[in-house]
Specification:
- This protein has 366 residues and is of the alpha+beta class.
- The protein contains 8 helices and 22 strands.
- The chain has a 6-stranded antiparallel sheet with strand order 1-19-16-21-14-13. Strands 2-3-10-5-8-12 form a 6-stranded antiparallel sheet. The protein has a 3-stranded antiparallel sheet with strand order 7-6-9, with no helix packed on it.
- Bound molecules: fe (ii) ion (FE2) (2 copies).
- The site of one fe (ii) ion (FE2) has 5 residues, from strand 4.
- The site of one fe (ii) ion has 5 residues, from strand 15.
Length: 366
Protein backbone atom coordinates (compact mmCIF):
# COMPACT_ATOMS: atom_id res chain seq x y z
CA UNK A 1 0.00 0.00 0.00
CA UNK A 2 1.53 3.30 -1.14
CA UNK A 3 0.98 6.52 0.81
CA UNK A 4 1.58 9.93 -0.66
CA UNK A 5 3.02 11.29 2.60
CA UNK A 6 6.59 12.40 3.23
CA UNK A 7 8.38 9.77 5.32
CA UNK A 8 6.08 6.94 4.19
CA UNK A 9 6.72 4.36 1.48
CA UNK A 10 5.52 5.56 -1.92
CA UNK A 11 7.38 3.67 -4.65
CA UNK A 12 5.63 3.09 -7.97
CA UNK A 13 6.00 -0.29 -9.66
CA UNK A 14 8.24 -0.47 -12.72
CA UNK A 15 9.15 -3.55 -14.76
CA UNK A 16 12.65 -3.31 -13.31
CA UNK A 17 11.40 -3.17 -9.70
CA UNK A 18 8.88 -5.97 -10.26
CA UNK A 19 11.70 -8.18 -11.49
CA UNK A 20 13.80 -7.09 -8.51
CA UNK A 21 11.02 -8.02 -6.03
CA UNK A 22 10.76 -11.42 -7.68
CA UNK A 23 14.49 -11.94 -7.32
CA UNK A 24 14.34 -10.98 -3.63
CA UNK A 25 11.42 -13.35 -3.04
CA UNK A 26 13.58 -16.13 -4.45
CA UNK A 27 16.06 -15.34 -1.70
CA UNK A 28 13.34 -15.47 1.02
CA UNK A 29 13.64 -11.69 1.35
CA UNK A 30 11.73 -8.58 0.32
CA UNK A 31 11.95 -4.81 -0.05
CA UNK A 32 10.62 -3.15 3.12
CA UNK A 33 9.01 -0.27 1.18
CA UNK A 34 6.56 -2.72 -0.40
CA UNK A 35 5.10 -3.65 3.02
CA UNK A 36 6.21 -0.88 5.40
CA UNK A 37 2.93 1.07 5.42
CA UNK A 38 0.99 -2.14 6.12
CA UNK A 39 3.17 -3.52 8.90
CA UNK A 40 3.65 -0.14 10.57
CA UNK A 41 0.23 1.55 10.56
CA UNK A 42 -0.06 5.06 11.98
CA UNK A 43 -1.99 3.64 14.90
CA UNK A 44 -3.16 0.18 16.07
CA UNK A 45 -5.33 -1.36 13.40
CA UNK A 46 -7.24 -4.20 15.05
CA UNK A 47 -8.54 -6.95 12.82
CA UNK A 48 -11.13 -7.76 15.51
CA UNK A 49 -14.59 -6.25 15.30
CA UNK A 50 -16.87 -5.40 18.23
CA UNK A 51 -19.23 -8.34 18.90
CA UNK A 52 -22.08 -8.86 21.36
CA UNK A 53 -22.84 -12.48 22.29
CA UNK A 54 -26.34 -12.47 23.78
CA UNK A 55 -26.82 -15.10 26.46
CA UNK A 56 -30.40 -15.55 25.29
CA UNK A 57 -29.00 -16.74 21.94
CA UNK A 58 -26.07 -18.73 23.31
CA UNK A 59 -27.65 -20.62 26.22
CA UNK A 60 -29.73 -23.13 24.25
CA UNK A 61 -26.93 -24.30 21.92
CA UNK A 62 -24.55 -24.45 24.87
CA UNK A 63 -27.00 -26.62 26.82
CA UNK A 64 -27.50 -28.82 23.74
CA UNK A 65 -23.80 -29.74 23.83
CA UNK A 66 -24.64 -31.71 27.02
CA UNK A 67 -26.43 -34.23 24.80
CA UNK A 68 -23.93 -34.16 21.97
CA UNK A 69 -20.57 -34.86 23.65
CA UNK A 70 -19.19 -36.15 26.93
CA UNK A 71 -16.41 -34.36 28.82
CA UNK A 72 -14.37 -37.57 28.48
CA UNK A 73 -14.45 -37.36 24.68
CA UNK A 74 -14.38 -33.59 24.34
CA UNK A 75 -11.76 -33.00 27.02
CA UNK A 76 -13.54 -29.78 27.81
CA UNK A 77 -17.16 -29.25 26.72
CA UNK A 78 -16.90 -25.68 25.56
CA UNK A 79 -18.51 -23.54 22.90
CA UNK A 80 -15.95 -20.89 22.07
CA UNK A 81 -16.57 -17.33 20.97
CA UNK A 82 -15.00 -16.55 17.65
CA UNK A 83 -14.51 -13.00 16.45
CA UNK A 84 -15.16 -12.78 12.66
CA UNK A 85 -11.83 -10.99 12.29
CA UNK A 86 -9.90 -13.55 14.33
CA UNK A 87 -11.12 -16.91 13.04
CA UNK A 88 -7.65 -18.14 12.17
CA UNK A 89 -6.46 -17.93 15.76
CA UNK A 90 -9.76 -18.89 17.48
CA UNK A 91 -9.80 -15.61 19.39
CA UNK A 92 -12.81 -13.77 20.77
CA UNK A 93 -10.88 -10.51 20.37
CA UNK A 94 -7.24 -9.67 19.77
CA UNK A 95 -5.13 -12.40 21.34
CA UNK A 96 -7.78 -13.45 23.90
CA UNK A 97 -9.75 -16.67 23.83
CA UNK A 98 -13.14 -17.11 25.48
CA UNK A 99 -15.80 -19.78 25.65
CA UNK A 100 -18.86 -21.03 27.48
CA UNK A 101 -18.33 -24.31 29.30
CA UNK A 102 -21.19 -26.46 30.55
CA UNK A 103 -21.19 -29.45 32.90
CA UNK A 104 -23.96 -31.48 34.41
CA UNK A 105 -24.19 -32.71 38.02
CA UNK A 106 -21.69 -35.47 38.81
CA UNK A 107 -19.43 -34.69 35.86
CA UNK A 108 -15.75 -34.02 36.34
CA UNK A 109 -13.33 -33.09 33.55
CA UNK A 110 -9.84 -34.55 33.48
CA UNK A 111 -7.05 -32.67 35.23
CA UNK A 112 -4.59 -30.94 32.96
CA UNK A 113 -2.07 -28.13 32.81
CA UNK A 114 -1.07 -25.68 30.09
CA UNK A 115 1.16 -22.70 29.53
CA UNK A 116 -1.87 -20.55 28.80
CA UNK A 117 -3.33 -18.77 31.82
CA UNK A 118 -7.03 -19.14 32.42
CA UNK A 119 -9.82 -17.70 34.45
CA UNK A 120 -13.49 -18.49 34.68
CA UNK A 121 -16.48 -16.40 35.66
CA UNK A 122 -19.47 -18.43 36.78
CA UNK A 123 -22.71 -17.65 34.97
CA UNK A 124 -25.30 -20.05 36.37
CA UNK A 125 -25.83 -23.28 38.26
CA UNK A 126 -25.22 -24.81 41.67
CA UNK A 127 -22.43 -27.11 42.80
CA UNK A 128 -19.59 -26.08 40.49
CA UNK A 129 -16.07 -26.49 41.77
CA UNK A 130 -12.52 -26.10 40.53
CA UNK A 131 -9.40 -27.78 41.87
CA UNK A 132 -6.08 -25.96 41.30
CA UNK A 133 -2.84 -27.59 42.44
CA UNK A 134 -4.70 -29.50 45.18
CA UNK A 135 -6.79 -26.51 46.37
CA UNK A 136 -10.53 -26.93 45.96
CA UNK A 137 -12.94 -24.04 45.49
CA UNK A 138 -16.73 -24.16 45.50
CA UNK A 139 -18.18 -21.69 43.04
CA UNK A 140 -21.45 -19.86 42.61
CA UNK A 141 -22.72 -17.32 40.10
CA UNK A 142 -20.38 -14.35 39.46
CA UNK A 143 -17.43 -15.86 41.32
CA UNK A 144 -14.07 -15.57 39.57
CA UNK A 145 -11.54 -18.39 39.75
CA UNK A 146 -8.00 -18.51 38.32
CA UNK A 147 -6.17 -21.47 36.83
CA UNK A 148 -2.79 -19.90 36.09
CA UNK A 149 -0.01 -20.90 33.71
CA UNK A 150 1.37 -24.33 34.62
CA UNK A 151 -1.08 -25.27 37.37
CA UNK A 152 -2.85 -28.63 37.44
CA UNK A 153 -6.55 -27.90 37.28
CA UNK A 154 -9.87 -29.58 36.77
CA UNK A 155 -13.52 -28.62 36.97
CA UNK A 156 -16.62 -30.46 38.04
CA UNK A 157 -20.14 -30.19 39.34
CA UNK A 158 -21.15 -31.96 42.56
CA UNK A 159 -23.68 -34.79 42.17
CA UNK A 160 -26.31 -32.80 44.09
CA UNK A 161 -25.82 -29.70 41.91
CA UNK A 162 -27.51 -28.42 38.75
CA UNK A 163 -26.10 -27.96 35.22
CA UNK A 164 -23.51 -25.19 35.42
CA UNK A 165 -22.33 -22.76 32.77
CA UNK A 166 -19.32 -20.51 33.12
CA UNK A 167 -17.27 -18.28 30.87
CA UNK A 168 -13.68 -19.29 30.28
CA UNK A 169 -11.09 -16.65 29.49
CA UNK A 170 -7.60 -17.59 28.35
CA UNK A 171 -4.57 -16.13 26.64
CA UNK A 172 -4.25 -19.15 24.29
CA UNK A 173 -3.90 -17.08 21.08
CA UNK A 174 -1.25 -14.90 22.73
CA UNK A 175 0.77 -17.84 24.06
CA UNK A 176 0.53 -19.47 20.63
CA UNK A 177 1.66 -16.23 18.99
CA UNK A 178 4.68 -16.38 21.30
CA UNK A 179 5.10 -20.03 20.23
CA UNK A 180 5.35 -21.03 23.87
CA UNK A 181 2.34 -23.26 24.54
CA UNK A 182 2.61 -26.64 26.27
CA UNK A 183 -0.27 -28.90 27.32
CA UNK A 184 -0.22 -31.85 29.71
CA UNK A 185 -2.88 -34.30 30.85
CA UNK A 186 -2.53 -35.35 34.50
CA UNK A 187 -1.08 -38.90 34.69
CA UNK A 188 -3.90 -40.00 37.03
CA UNK A 189 -6.54 -37.92 35.16
CA UNK A 190 -7.55 -36.64 38.59
CA UNK A 191 -5.61 -34.81 41.23
CA UNK A 192 -5.81 -35.22 44.98
CA UNK A 193 -7.26 -32.47 47.13
CA UNK A 194 -4.23 -31.80 49.31
CA UNK A 195 -5.33 -28.65 51.18
CA UNK A 196 -8.41 -27.72 53.24
CA UNK A 197 -11.24 -26.59 50.94
CA UNK A 198 -11.17 -22.79 50.37
CA UNK A 199 -7.87 -22.53 52.24
CA UNK A 200 -6.46 -19.78 50.03
CA UNK A 201 -9.50 -17.54 50.68
CA UNK A 202 -8.93 -17.91 54.41
CA UNK A 203 -5.19 -17.33 54.09
CA UNK A 204 -4.94 -14.60 51.46
CA UNK A 205 -8.46 -13.19 51.20
CA UNK A 206 -8.63 -11.22 54.43
CA UNK A 207 -8.99 -7.45 53.92
CA UNK A 208 -5.68 -5.61 54.41
CA UNK A 209 -4.26 -8.45 56.47
CA UNK A 210 -1.59 -10.84 55.40
CA UNK A 211 -0.25 -13.81 57.32
CA UNK A 212 3.14 -12.81 58.72
CA UNK A 213 4.83 -16.09 57.93
CA UNK A 214 3.23 -16.87 54.58
CA UNK A 215 5.50 -16.84 51.57
CA UNK A 216 4.44 -16.64 47.93
CA UNK A 217 6.78 -15.96 45.04
CA UNK A 218 4.88 -17.29 42.04
CA UNK A 219 3.87 -14.97 39.21
CA UNK A 220 0.16 -15.21 39.94
CA UNK A 221 -2.23 -14.55 42.77
CA UNK A 222 -2.29 -17.17 45.56
CA UNK A 223 -5.94 -16.31 46.18
CA UNK A 224 -7.32 -18.13 43.09
CA UNK A 225 -10.98 -17.50 43.97
CA UNK A 226 -12.65 -14.09 44.17
CA UNK A 227 -16.18 -14.19 45.56
CA UNK A 228 -18.91 -12.07 44.08
CA UNK A 229 -20.42 -10.96 47.40
CA UNK A 230 -17.14 -9.41 48.59
CA UNK A 231 -16.46 -7.91 45.15
CA UNK A 232 -19.85 -6.21 44.91
CA UNK A 233 -19.67 -5.01 48.51
CA UNK A 234 -16.24 -3.46 47.81
CA UNK A 235 -17.52 -1.68 44.70
CA UNK A 236 -20.50 -0.30 46.62
CA UNK A 237 -18.27 0.97 49.41
CA UNK A 238 -15.88 2.56 46.92
CA UNK A 239 -18.74 4.20 45.01
CA UNK A 240 -20.10 5.69 48.25
CA UNK A 241 -17.06 7.88 48.65
CA UNK A 242 -15.58 8.27 45.17
CA UNK A 243 -17.29 9.43 41.96
CA UNK A 244 -15.11 7.09 39.93
CA UNK A 245 -13.66 7.74 36.50
CA UNK A 246 -15.54 9.60 33.78
CA UNK A 247 -14.63 6.75 31.41
CA UNK A 248 -14.96 3.66 33.56
CA UNK A 249 -17.26 4.50 36.46
CA UNK A 250 -16.07 2.89 39.70
CA UNK A 251 -13.65 0.33 38.39
CA UNK A 252 -11.63 -2.00 40.59
CA UNK A 253 -9.05 -4.54 39.54
CA UNK A 254 -8.89 -8.01 40.96
CA UNK A 255 -5.35 -8.18 42.34
CA UNK A 256 -2.64 -10.50 43.51
CA UNK A 257 -2.66 -9.71 47.26
CA UNK A 258 1.08 -10.24 47.52
CA UNK A 259 1.93 -7.60 44.91
CA UNK A 260 -1.14 -5.43 44.37
CA UNK A 261 -0.63 -6.19 40.67
CA UNK A 262 -2.74 -8.18 38.23
CA UNK A 263 -4.05 -11.64 39.11
CA UNK A 264 -1.83 -13.32 36.51
CA UNK A 265 1.16 -12.23 34.43
CA UNK A 266 -0.67 -12.15 31.13
CA UNK A 267 -4.34 -11.69 32.06
CA UNK A 268 -5.94 -9.04 34.20
CA UNK A 269 -9.51 -8.97 35.48
CA UNK A 270 -11.69 -6.08 36.62
CA UNK A 271 -15.18 -5.29 37.84
CA UNK A 272 -16.74 -1.89 37.35
CA UNK A 273 -19.88 -0.33 38.70
CA UNK A 274 -21.90 1.96 36.44
CA UNK A 275 -24.37 3.89 38.58
CA UNK A 276 -28.09 4.10 37.84
CA UNK A 277 -28.54 6.45 34.89
CA UNK A 278 -24.78 6.90 34.38
CA UNK A 279 -23.37 7.19 30.88
CA UNK A 280 -19.57 7.19 30.78
CA UNK A 281 -17.48 9.31 28.45
CA UNK A 282 -15.78 7.59 25.53
CA UNK A 283 -12.11 6.77 25.47
CA UNK A 284 -9.85 4.32 23.73
CA UNK A 285 -6.70 2.55 24.75
CA UNK A 286 -4.40 -0.22 23.63
CA UNK A 287 -5.26 -3.71 24.88
CA UNK A 288 -8.22 -5.99 24.20
CA UNK A 289 -11.08 -6.40 26.65
CA UNK A 290 -13.87 -8.98 26.99
CA UNK A 291 -16.81 -7.99 29.18
CA UNK A 292 -19.52 -10.01 30.83
CA UNK A 293 -22.52 -8.17 32.22
CA UNK A 294 -22.55 -9.36 35.83
CA UNK A 295 -25.49 -7.20 36.87
CA UNK A 296 -28.04 -4.93 35.26
CA UNK A 297 -29.11 -3.71 31.86
CA UNK A 298 -27.55 -1.12 29.61
CA UNK A 299 -25.57 -0.45 26.48
CA UNK A 300 -22.11 0.19 25.16
CA UNK A 301 -21.16 2.26 22.16
CA UNK A 302 -18.08 0.82 20.48
CA UNK A 303 -16.58 2.66 17.53
CA UNK A 304 -19.90 4.38 16.95
CA UNK A 305 -22.00 1.21 17.06
CA UNK A 306 -24.53 0.74 19.86
CA UNK A 307 -24.88 -2.65 21.61
CA UNK A 308 -27.75 -3.09 24.06
CA UNK A 309 -26.98 -5.74 26.63
CA UNK A 310 -28.46 -7.42 29.64
CA UNK A 311 -27.21 -9.63 32.45
CA UNK A 312 -24.92 -12.52 31.33
CA UNK A 313 -24.33 -11.08 27.86
CA UNK A 314 -20.72 -10.97 26.69
CA UNK A 315 -19.13 -8.38 24.43
CA UNK A 316 -15.66 -7.36 23.35
CA UNK A 317 -13.83 -4.10 22.80
CA UNK A 318 -10.91 -4.44 20.35
CA UNK A 319 -7.66 -2.58 21.00
CA UNK A 320 -7.75 1.16 20.31
CA UNK A 321 -11.53 1.18 19.84
CA UNK A 322 -13.63 4.02 21.20
CA UNK A 323 -15.97 2.80 23.91
CA UNK A 324 -18.44 4.16 26.44
CA UNK A 325 -20.96 2.40 28.67
CA UNK A 326 -24.45 3.30 29.86
CA UNK A 327 -26.71 2.03 32.63
CA UNK A 328 -30.25 1.87 31.24
CA UNK A 329 -31.84 1.80 34.69
CA UNK A 330 -32.47 4.81 36.93
CA UNK A 331 -32.62 2.63 40.05
CA UNK A 332 -30.37 -0.41 39.66
CA UNK A 333 -26.60 -0.80 39.45
CA UNK A 334 -24.78 -2.17 36.45
CA UNK A 335 -21.67 -4.25 37.11
CA UNK A 336 -19.40 -5.19 34.23
CA UNK A 337 -16.90 -7.97 34.74
CA UNK A 338 -13.99 -7.89 32.31
CA UNK A 339 -10.75 -9.62 31.56
CA UNK A 340 -8.02 -8.29 29.36
CA UNK A 341 -4.40 -8.35 28.24
CA UNK A 342 -3.53 -5.07 29.96
CA UNK A 343 -0.81 -6.69 32.13
CA UNK A 344 1.04 -7.60 28.93
CA UNK A 345 0.38 -4.23 27.32
CA UNK A 346 1.48 -2.29 30.41
CA UNK A 347 4.50 -4.38 31.30
CA UNK A 348 5.82 -4.12 27.77
CA UNK A 349 5.42 -0.35 27.72
CA UNK A 350 2.67 -0.43 25.08
CA UNK A 351 -0.17 1.24 26.97
CA UNK A 352 -1.66 4.32 25.33
CA UNK A 353 -4.95 5.99 26.16
CA UNK A 354 -6.93 8.80 24.61
CA UNK A 355 -10.12 10.62 25.57
CA UNK A 356 -12.83 11.30 22.98
CA UNK A 357 -12.89 15.08 22.72
CA UNK A 358 -15.67 15.65 20.20
CA UNK A 359 -19.41 16.05 20.95
CA UNK A 360 -18.97 16.54 24.71
CA UNK A 361 -17.11 13.23 25.02
CA UNK A 362 -19.87 11.01 23.60
CA UNK A 363 -19.68 9.20 20.27
CA UNK A 364 -22.30 9.74 17.64
CA UNK A 365 -23.93 6.43 16.74
CA UNK A 366 -23.77 5.65 13.02
FE1 LIG B 1 -7.42 -25.70 31.31
FE1 LIG C 1 -11.75 1.39 28.71
Amino acid sequence: MREDVIGRANVEDTPELTAYYKELAGLEAGALWTVANDIEPWQPNSSSIPVLWRYADMREPVMRSLELVTPEKAGRRVIYLNNPGRRQVSAAVGWLYSGLQVMRPGERASAHAHSASALRFIIEGEGAYTIVDGHKFNLTARDLVLTPNGTWHEHGVEAHGTPCIWQDGLDIPFVNAMEANFYRVHPNLRQEITHPVEDTSKTWGNPALRPAAAHWAKGYSPLFKYEWSATYESLRRFAEVDPGSAFDGNLMNYVNPTTGGPVMQTLGASMQLIRPGQHTHAHRHTGSVIYQVALGTGYSIINGQRFDWRERDIFCVPSWSWHEHGNASLSDDVCLFSFHDLPVISNLGLYREEAYEDNGGFQRCG
